[in-house]
Structures are given as C-alpha cells and as structure tokens.
Amino acid sequence: MATTLKVNGAETRVDAAPETPLLYALRDDLGLNGPKYGCGLGQCGACTVLVDGRAVLSCVTPISVIGSRAVETVEGLGTAEAPGPVQRAFIELQAMQCGYCIPGMMMRTEALLRDNPDPQDHEIRAAFQTNLCRCGTHMRIMKAIRRAAELYRDANPVQEG
Amino acid sequence: MMSGRPETAKPFDLSRRQVIAGAGGLIVGYTFLPAFAQVAAPEAPAPEPAHLPGSLDDTRLLDAWIHIAPDDAITAFSGKAELGQSIKVPLKQIAAEELGIGIDQLTLVNADTGRTPDEGFTAGSMTIQYSGTALRNAAAQVRVLLIAAAARRWGIAPDGLRAENRQIIAPDGRTLRFGELVAETDLHVEALPESPLTDPANFRLIGQSLPRPDIALKATGGAAFIQDLRPEGMVHARVIRPASPGATLIEADIAAAEAMPGVVAVIRDGSFLAVVAEREFQAIGAMRVLQASANWQDGPALPDQTAMSAWLEANVSETGTVAEEGDPDAAEGETYEAVFTRPYLMHGSIGPSCALAVLERDDMTVWSHTQGVFADRDAIAELLNMDPARVRVIHAEGAGCYGHNGADDAAADAALIASKLPGRPIRLVWMREQEHANEPYGPPMLLKLRAKLGDGGMISAWSYDLYSSTHTGRPGGPPALLAGQMKADPYPPFVGKLSIVPTGNGDRNANPYYTIPNRRILWNFIEAAPLRISSLRALGAFANVFAVESAMDELALMAGTDPVEFRLRHLEDPRARDVVERAATEFGWSGIGEPGGTRGVGFAYARYKNLASYLALAVEIEVDPAVGDVRLVRAVAAIDAGEAVSPDGIINQTEGGILQSMSWTLFETVTFDQGGITSTDWSSYPILRFSHVPDSVAVHVIDRPGQPYLGAGEAAQGPTCGAIGNALRNTIGRRVHDLPLSRERVRHALQA
User: Cα(A124)–Cα(B254) distance, rounded to whole angstroms?
Assistant: First the structure.
C-alpha cells in the first residue's frame, strides 16, 4: 500500500503499511540518515523532524496521519558544502560527542527558532526538555542553539516596511 | 581528508577480502637497512623482547601501524574504536605530526579484525596513551626509514634531510616522494624501543584543537553510524527477550509470526528467539506477536532491591587486600565512620544496540559498535563453532556507549541469526525496552569507611571495606553474551573473579591518593551477579571517589580546616596540587560558608586510577528544599591529562563527564522486582534533562608537553559525584550517603 509523502520539498511514494511510523519510512524507504531511532516511545527526541514547521516525534507518528503536510529532516536544512544556519552553529561550536541525538536537537532548534527567533534561556530549556543527550553535551548544545539564533536572524532578517 | 565519509560507512563491499590482502601490500621489495635489519633478523633471538612504547609492545611491526602506497596514499591503523569520545582526529594529529605531513594527507582505519592491530578494548581512557603512543613512535620510525632511503638514493648523509608534505627534502632542495621511496624501504620490521620524537617546541599539529570532520557529516545527514549501513539485500531482525533474566522459552506461536506479511524467518535456537522480515516495521510487528505469545519459565527470583546492602554483605565469596600500610586499628585519632552505597546504573546509550552480520559461503562478517572487535570475533566464532579466521568483526560507530553496553550482545545476536540465513545481510536493532532491560549494568556497591584524624589536623588512619562484584563482564567469551546463554546447549553465565591490579576494577580509586600513614583497603568480592554486569565508565572509581571525597570533607570539618586546604595538606604530588589549586582559583573558592541557604559549594579531587589523569573541580549547587531537588549551577574543573593532543577534545570529554556524572549522581537507579527489570524506558529510568543543565561549566586543561598521555575520558566521573555530594552537605548541613542524591533522599535528610 503506497502513501505519498512530501519530504524536504520533494514528493515521494512510500510502499509501506499506513500504520508504519514516519521514522522507518524516512530511514528505510527514503534512505535518510538524519532522524534516529532512539526509543520508539516518543521519549527521547532522537527522531525529531518537522511536520509543517512543527517539531514532531517521527517514531510515534504513523505515515497515514501525515497527508500532504511538509516533512523536513536535517537533510533539508542544508548540505555539508552549504550548511544552513542551525547546522553551521552546531559545526562551528563542535557541539557533539557521539552526535547521535544531535539531528533531533537540530530539528528542535529549527522549530523553536521559526517560532521564536530570539529565545531566552528558560525558553530553550523548556523547548528541549524532551530531547535527551547521554554524552552530556548539553553545554555545547545550549551554546549552539544560541549561536543558531544569531545566524538564523542574520539569514532571515525581519522584513522592514 | 577521508573523502568526507568514514570507512565504516562504505556500502557493502563483497570484495573486502581483497582489501585485507591489499592492506599488507607494502611487504614487497625488501631492502634491509643495517640498523633495522638487526632488529628484524637478530642473530640470536633475545629471550625477552624489548619493551616497546604503547601498543607497539603487542603489535611490533611498523607496517601494522603505517602503510604508504606508491601513489603517496598514507594510512594509519589503530585497534581503538571511535565511541563518541572523538579519538580519530587526535590519533591522526599524532601520526601526521611525526610523518611530517598534513592531517588531511592521512587516512585512519580503526578497529577491524581484518586490518588493524589488536589493541584489546577501547576502554579505560587508554586510547591516546596506548594507540596514540604506538602511532607516534611508529610514525617517527617510518620517517627515519624514509629519510634513510632518500639519503641512500642521493648518496648523502641523512642528517640534514627532513620529511614534509609526503616528501623527503634534501638541504639543497631536492625531493623524493614517500611513494617513490617506499618500494626500497622495508616497513615490515620490528619497531625499536626508542624513537626520534618531534620536539614539543616544533609541534605543528599536536596541541591544536582541530575540527572533527564527522561533525559536519553527522549534522547534514551523512552516513556516519552503523544504523546507516544499508547493504543490498539487507533484511531486518528483532529478538524477543523474556522479562525475567535467565528465563527459558517454553513455547511461542511461531506459525502466527511466520504467516505475517514480510516475515522471512522466525529463528528459534533453544531460548533464543528472533524474527527476520523484509521491512523494519514488519519485523517489529512480528516481534510483538511472538512476545505476546511466548511462554517463559522464569529464571531465579531477583533479590530485594531495597535491601541490596544486606545482599552484598551476605554474598561475599572472598576478600582481597587492595592496599595495606601501617596499622590503622592501632593509630590514634578522632574517628569518622560512614557507609556509602551506589545502585545498579545503566549505560543508557541514546541509540539502542545495533549490529549487521552476513554469512557468505564460510565467511561471517559482523559490523558492530563493540569496544573490542577482536574479543567479539573470538566470542562469536566460539558461539557459532567457527574458525576465528573465518569471522571478521568491523567496528562501525554507534551512539556513545560509556563502557560495555549491549553492543557485543547485539553483534552475537545478529551473527547467530545470519548463520541461519546464509547470504542475507541481517540488520538487528534492539528495542529501547530491550536495551534498558538487557544491557550489562554497572554493579551496586557498599562502601564502609573508617578514618581517624590525628595530631596536627592530619589523617592518621584509613580503613575501607568495599563490597562489590567485578565491574567487567568481559572478555568472557560466549558466556558473557546473551545469545550464548539463551541458545540451545547454553553456556553457563559469565562468572567474575577477584583480581586486584594497579589500574583497579571495582577497587579503582578505593585507595585514597592522599598521604596517610596507616591504611587498609579491602575488597569483599561478590561472585554472584543476579543481573548481568559489565564496565561502566570509570568502573568502581565513581562511587569510591564519592566515598573518599565525602570523608575528606568530613575530616576537614573535624579539623576545622577549609576542604581545599585540607586536601593540599595531604597531597605531595605537585601535579595533584596544581589541579587542586587551579580549580580553586578559577572557581574563586572562598570556603564553604554556613549551611542553611539554598545554595552551596563543594570541592573534590582524584587522580584517575591513582596513575592516570589528575582532575579537581569545584561546584555550586542550588537546592529546592520543598521538593528536594538539586541542580548543579556551576562547575569549574582543572585537568592534567599529560601532553594535550587536542585540548578541545579533552574539554569536550570532561564537560561531558561532569554532566553525565551529575546525572548518575542525582537521578539514576536501575529498578527491579523479583520478576525482572522495571526501569525499562526513559520515564522509569530518568536521566539529566535540560531543566537541570548548569548555567556554566568551565574546564581548564593543564598541558604537559613532552609528558606521557594520561587519558581524559573518565577522570571527571568520580570527582563530580564527590563535589556535588559535598556541596549538598554544605548547603543543607547534612550528608546523604546513598546514591543517587534523589529528591526523596534530600527531603528525608532535610526532615531528619
């Protein structure tokens, strides 16, 4: 049974059962590496992607509920040659140890900044409460989020007049 | 650079046997050089081989470490694996430094039984110390050989020649490429004990914080992890595990699972039960059907989690002496006594264990995020009754592991499944609940401490009774693997033995690194292990340092002395004193103040293993007395890891160690009842979240150019716990002796 998904701007047919979590469609059918399997329970945030600009836990979201909404993963934020602002911030601050949780952190950052381009410390902590990191990279992740906010504002200046 | 894609992320390569053959391709065109020929072909073999630096001592031929191809491609080989601790760049820095080349002119191959030296386990903060030292010396000796070859070609003395940019350059400007010289340079020779190492004053690469190329890859969705390997024809496997450890499978509705869409096979071998399906979610669906229908005969009942101290005391199998000096019983002084505990802790990798395995004809290849590809290969070969030469284990990066987690078990699971489905690459992933319930845990500990404060505010005696099982469930062979314990004709479970070695195990850092005239440190060893256990970052040092540093603060209070001053009074090693003084100064330490408020400070120090890195830190915490909640507000650490290859790498590891140790200290306990593990997800096993991230963490690296590498990965675990415990005491005026320092315990202490 085929479902049509719009991922990183392109429409693709995915031949998977409708109850299949989006995570498996992204990783196994579309070959994307960004979203990670961490718990399959919606508890850790490693699988975080954007659906219509909002952070969604792809491990507990069946493809049948996505419909025509736009799905974005880190692959959609930029490339190694031309990274987007959030990617640049994490690379610039070397904000990884193993890096397994980081694509989820980056998608959470993207969602936060689209909603709130100048988040305060407590707003960052609240937004990231459901994203777990086991290496203890949190200090650098926090710095990268703040740096991403700066780069994001530079890349998306508020339109005057 | 490494073409932007790690070795491990290569697509499935059926010609890899040829790659192995090719890796040794330098062994052509022998031209013995006088100096090295003597080593390679001694007239009379020495009874004792000379000690060689680092892992060269075990893998003694230069070409096992450095390969140079005729086209100038240079490859370094390390038996150590990348576990998220960021070792690849520093290892390349070290090798490239001595070869006189740029870091981008070197490819590094890690941990592959088909290609790299066997360096045991990537553990114990020993990668730079052993593998780095080996590569440093091997690269320096290869440089000397290339210079000698060029000198011979030119008929000049080697003295003025230098290596640069993959060339040997003569004083008059003539050059010869490494690739030209390699045909007449025999690198298949044993290394020498001494190498002409680069003077630290001339370092180009060592000491630089260089960016990690894998970070850009991982940030943009590049194939970087074992989970990203997708060979042609790959199928998805899941295992079915009982709730009760040691349970045996009576029956399961295999026919029902086999009839499900996409299911390729259901595999049962004794109590080992797995399903293979074309699609991942089909495998999960079939796994659930099998899980629901499986009928297990429970294993032995687990002990009462609330009475683990009594259980430990009741199950001592033998007692070993870790250290003894003078007579602590006879020594005079005011006595301090306390008992500390820690629970089972889990590694809790964010990515559950994963493995890929394929049997082609008679060859089994396994990709694993194991810490020890060679030990894993041997265990899998024995498990499958295969010749180890027909089994290859290749390391592929997983999520950070912090020790021996489920990686080896998953590798064995995948290999066992692959052995029954020849030709199909099997991708196995454990479910989160399986990882939480089945990984080998860091074991519980009971620590009884008795110290005396003698004349002049100096400690006169120290007695320490440690109760713990071993902290390492490996190498262990098949008995250490779940598949080994579950298959038909199972192996009996791994049983640890008491072994007291200088680096320590459960007794790591049990012996205080302080000047104390009378001491007795005993390890009351427990052979029984109701839950599987194995190495968790820092082993016993985490809780032992907590106990030792708690006692140091209490003794300082008894002496009426500031805790930093009290430690300095008992520290002779100048490098130890340096980290203590540096951490105190950078923190702005001004004493512990009076308890009673909501904020307080604490200090701790340890030299990891009593022979590796020095680390001291000061912390400030905040306590919410109504809830009992503790938050680390600020931490300032000083670390001396010897010569710093990558200062930023040391900082990153230490920051991570501080935050992870804080999570263990405040939040974590594996929970269980008689029938099995009850902490099977992130809500029942809470860890650090962003609400509890400190406001600031500063790590100061004291660089010691020219000094041996001491390793940085685990130095923060013990001191962080000790400092937080001390800060809690200094904030609320009462000490909490049992880990974790949970909200319930803090509230209880406040009400006491």
Answer: 48
Average pLDDT, integer, range B668-692: 98
DSSP letters for B137-188: HHHHHHHHHHHHHHHHHHTS-STT-EEETTEEE-TTS-EEEHHHHGGG----
- B 169-208 → A contacts, CB under 8 A: none
The list of chain A residues with pLDDT below 70 reads: 158-161
Structural domain for B523, as ranges: 445-471+506-751
pLDDT value at residue A159: 59
Contact assignment for B211 to A142 by CB distance below 8 Å: no
State chain A's mean pLDDT as an integer: 95
Are the Cβ atoms of A97 and B400 closer than 8 angstroms? yes
Residue B453 to chain A, least CA–CA distance (Å): 37
User: Is B362 found in the same domain as B456?
Assistant: no
Report pLDDT digits (tens) over B618-663.
Answer: 999 999 999 999 999 999 999 999 999 999 999 999 999 999 999 9
Note the pLDDT of residue B16: 32
DSSP A101: S
Ramachandran assignment for B588, one of left (phi > 0), alpha (psi -120 to 50 degrees), beta (any other) = left
Distance CA B473, CA B506 (A): 12
Whether residue B173 is contained in a domain is answered as yes
Selecting from A36, A44, A79 the residue whose C-beta is nearest the C-beta of B227 gives: A36
Q: What are chain A's domains?
A: 2-73 (3.10.20.30), 85-155 (1.10.150.120)
Contact B381, B391 (CB under 8 A): yes
The rounded mean pLDDT for chain B is 93
pLDDT band at B44 (very low <50, low <70, confident <90, very high): low
Please tell me the predicted confidence (pLDDT) of residue B22.
Answer: 31
pLDDT tops 60 at residue B257: yes
CA distance B590 to B338: 27
Spatial distance between the Cα atoms of B490 and B47, rounded to a whole number of angstroms: 42
The contacts of residue B599 (CB under 8 Å, 6+ apart) are: B620, B621, B622, B623, B633, B731
Average pLDDT over residues B578-591: 98
Look at B84 and A17 and tell me if their CB atoms are within 8 Å.
no
CA distance B115 to B185: 21
Whether B209 shows a pLDDT value over 90: the answer reads: yes
Three-class HEC string of B570-627: CCCCHHHHHHHHHHHHHHCCCCCCCCCCCEEEEEEEEEHHHCCCEEEEEEEEEEECCC
Task: Check if A104 contacts B (Cβ < 8 Å).
Answer: no
How do residues B437-466 score in pLDDT, each as one tens digit?
999 999 999 999 999 999 999 999 999 999
Burial of A106 (0-12, 13-18, 19+ CB in 10 A): buried
Alpha carbon distance A75, B543 (integer Å): 42
> Do B57 and B162 share a domain, yes or no?
yes
pLDDT at B125: 85
- For residues B323-347, one letter each, b for 16 or more C-beta atoms within 10 angstroms of the residue's C-beta and e for the rest, the string is beeeebeebebeebeeebbbbbbbb
- pLDDT at residue B533 tops 60: yes
B427 reaches A (C-beta below 8 A): no
- Residue B615 and residue B357: Cα distance in Å, rounded? 41
Quickly state the pLDDT bin for B560 (edges 50, 70, 90).
Answer: very high
Tell me the CATH number at B415: 3.30.365.10
- Nearest Cα neighbor of B459 from B449, B467, B468 is B449
- As beta bridge partners, residue B601 has B620
